[in-house]
Amino acid sequence: MLDASGLDLLFNKARTPLRWTTRPVEEDLLRQMYDLVRMGPTSGNCSPARLVFITGSNGREKLRPALSAGNINRVMGAPVIAIVAHDPLFFEQLPVLSPGEDLRSWFAADVGLSEETAFRNGTLQGGYMIMAARALGLDVLPVSGFDQSMVEDAFLAEQGWRANFLLCLGYGDFTGLPERAPRLSFDQACRIVQ
Q: Which of 7, 69, 19, 10 lies closest to 178 in space, CA to CA?
């Protein structure tokens, strides 16, 4: 079990930055982060998440028109902007990822099941990415305020991947950050059924 400092790093004291320092994020850290993300469980080990890391000015300028006005400064200031996407044809990798089971044919024959599975498990892997980034000392800003079609046309069309959300990664500047917003209590958000 993680000790209190580990839980604080991942949850209790972790904050979402609104601004970023100029400290760069090294490619090796992104690779370490992905190596953690890929170890998280997905149904049938389907692993549909696909990631595009934008680190340079050309990529940022391609992304800028797709961002909602309120997110431009926060996103563009991040050292790394990750497009968390999923591969609708993830099932083509299942013979390698789940050998011995004929899972590929299930998904290849049912587009609805395939799309639902890719989206759900790709989102799950995006959540793992937030935790992996925090575990490695990065700060994270999840963003859903963008035009999905524009992002897909600019960055994902060649692979046929589908955009889900953006994750800004870097080292946050927390000066002047407001108090943490409230969260729902267990009794407000949970039920136990016996």
A: 19
Q: To which residue do tokens 């267990």 refer?
A: 186
Alpha-carbon distance of 148 to 39, in angstroms, equals 27
| Helix, strand, coil tally for the chain in percent (to 5) | 50, 15, 35
Residue 78, judged by CB atoms within 10 A of its CB (0-12, 13-18, 19+), counts as buried
Region of 112 please: left (phi>0), alpha (psi -120 to 50) or beta.
Answer: alpha
List, in sequence order, every residue forming a beta bridge with 82; answer none if it has no partner: 53, 167
Tokens of 179: 């108090």
Render each residue's pLDDT in the chain as its tens digit; 194 residues. Answer: 999 999 999 999 999 999 999 999 999 999 999 999 999 999 999 999 999 999 999 999 999 999 999 999 999 999 999 999 999 999 999 999 999 888 999 999 999 999 999 999 999 999 999 999 999 999 999 999 999 999 999 999 999 999 999 999 999 999 999 999 999 999 999 999 99
- Tokens describing residue 131: 């935790």
Residue found by looking up tokens 């050309």 in the block: 58
Burial of 172 (0-12, 13-18, 19+ CB in 10 A): buried
Helices vs. strands in the chain: H and E counts, helices first:
9, 6
pTM of the model: 0.96
